[in-house]
């Protein structure tokens, strides 16, 4: 009679499953990239939308749906297991490309993005939780760097590919047929090869070397700590929100801003892809760097770098200058993105960590919606560049708030592996 292999924590110890989950998250990111370049152009060319606020409704719909679903992904993964939640997310992704191909009206596009947001909330949140389960406390930053690098590297690659295909074959249906292939492959890999990791979290809880939680926290208490009362968790939540506000703004606004310089569709696709490409590749460095240098300085510096980069985008008016500024924006985001997730993992106890990740990602991905609102309203009232300047001010304020309020969360020796509040 065979027995199950003993549970071990660590990147090396779980390399096969960890690598598989990295590949799965790349497919998750590609589902976003398939539409990032194409939809803003499709809105004007095929649906005649000219008001920026109305045009950005698809980003708003995506952001709200993903944000809310992130919260439930954390609680459901604790209740039902990680793998069932991941499978459910992929099944919801399957109709998205078909809705975009067949959409006779803009409302179909908005509905597709609601579905995509729910799918992304379930799939991306769960892959994050599963990787944190597998690696344990020592290499959390590196793990999140690899996860987010795969996801946003795939956003960039899929965005550039969609821009190329749109230029060669038109805005529909070819770019979205590739998206359909991403979804089918994601379902197959998850069902056939991904294994449940909830046991690893339970193992870490049983062998946790830090202080045990004084009591079992309710969902409401986890929400309150992550949102308001814990200075590390709440600082991470606000920085995550502003970070994704910038991404949401770029998703809906940058293609239109770049088009004012009479750039071609493939050129716009390259510029749109450059931001997540640098962001994704940079996380291969910054995630592990945060394990050595700590979390706070990378987060604060990254938010201030984003503010400088956005100012460059607002001032630029040609391909070369925009390319330099969007690359800098990607570098600033790379400093922040995996480090925020690692900080959540540092502070939250294994017994309520999945729920805290869900709350953090609720606020972080609300940034998509705020980006759509800020970008759309300011652009309609003034212009596209003024909307970018609004993001500059918000990023600057966020970076200063982290610098003055957030404590360092990374453990400095083996006696302090977690900070529990």
Automatic annotation (TrEMBL):
| Native source species | Glycomyces albidus
Please name the GO terms that the record assigns under molecular function.
transmembrane transporter activity
Q: Which UniProt keywords apply?
A: Cell membrane, Membrane, Transmembrane, Transmembrane helix, Transport
Note the Gene3D superfamilies from the entry.
Answer: MFS general substrate transporter like domains
Its protein name is: MFS transporter
Major subcellular location class = membrane
What is the membrane topology listed in the Swiss-Prot or TrEMBL record? Multi-pass membrane protein
Matching entries from SUPFAM superfamilies are given as:
MFS general substrate transporter
Q: Which parts of the chain span the membrane according to its record? A: 15-32, 52-73, 85-102, 149-167, 173-194, 267-286, 298-316, 322-345, 366-382, 388-406
Major facilitator superfamily (MFS) profile domain location, by residue?
14-410
Q: Which Pfam families match?
A: MFS_1 (PF07690)
What compartments host this protein?
A: Cell membrane
Q: Name one GO cellular component term.
A: plasma membrane
């Amino acid at each position: 009679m065979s027995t199950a292999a003993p549970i071990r924590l660590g990147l090396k110890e779980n390399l096969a499953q960890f690598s598989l989950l990295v590949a799965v998250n790349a497919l998750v990111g590609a589902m976003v990239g398939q539409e990032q370049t194409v939809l803003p152009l499709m809105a004007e060319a095929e649906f005649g939308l000219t008001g920026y606020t109305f045009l950005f409704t698809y980003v708003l719909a995506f952001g709200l749906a993903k944000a809310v679903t992130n919260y439930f992904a954390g609680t459901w993964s604790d209740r039902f297991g990680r793998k069932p939640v991941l499978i459910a997310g992929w099944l919801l992704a399957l109709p998205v490309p078909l809705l975009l191909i067949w959409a006779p009206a803009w409302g179909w596009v908005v509905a597709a993005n609601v579905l995509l947001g729910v799918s992304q909330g379930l799939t991306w949140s769960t892959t994050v939780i599963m990787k944190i389960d597998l690696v344990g406390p020592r290499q959390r930053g590196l793990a999140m760097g690899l996860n987010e690098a795969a996801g946003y590297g795939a956003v960039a690659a899929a965005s550039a590919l969609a821009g190329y295909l749109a230029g060669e074959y038109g805005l529909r249906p070819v770019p979205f047929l590739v998206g359909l292939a991403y979804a089918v492959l994601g379902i197959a890999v998850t069902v056939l090869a991904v294994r449940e990791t909830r046991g690893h979290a339970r193992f870490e809880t049983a062998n946790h070397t830090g202080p045990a939680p004084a009591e079992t926290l309710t969902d409401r208490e986890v929400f309150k700590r992550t949102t308001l009362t814990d200075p590390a968790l709440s600082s991470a939540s606000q920085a995550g929100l502003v970070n994704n506000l910038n991404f949401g703004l770029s998703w809906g606004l940058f293609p239109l801003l770049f088009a004012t310089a009479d750039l071609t569709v493939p050129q716009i696709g390259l510029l749109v892809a450059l931001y997540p490409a640098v962001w994704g590749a940079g996380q291969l460095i910054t995630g592990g760097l945060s394990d050595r240098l700590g979390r706070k300085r990378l987060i604060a510096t990254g938010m201030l770098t984003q503010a400088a980069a956005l100012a460059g985008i607002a001032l630029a008016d040609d391909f070369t200058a925009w390319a330099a500024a969007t690359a800098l924006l990607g570098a600033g985001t790379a400093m922040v993105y995996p480090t925020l997730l690692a900080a959540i993992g540092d502070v939250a106890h294994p017994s309520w960590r999945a729920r805290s990740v869900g709350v953090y990602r609720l606020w972080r991905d609300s940034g998509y919606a705020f980006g759509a609102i800020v970008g759309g309203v300011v652009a309609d009232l003034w212009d596209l560049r003024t909307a970018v300047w609004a993001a500059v001010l918000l990023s600057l304020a966020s970076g200063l708030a982290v610098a003055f309020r957030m404590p360092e969360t990374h453990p400095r020796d083996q006696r302090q592996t977690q900070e529990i509040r």
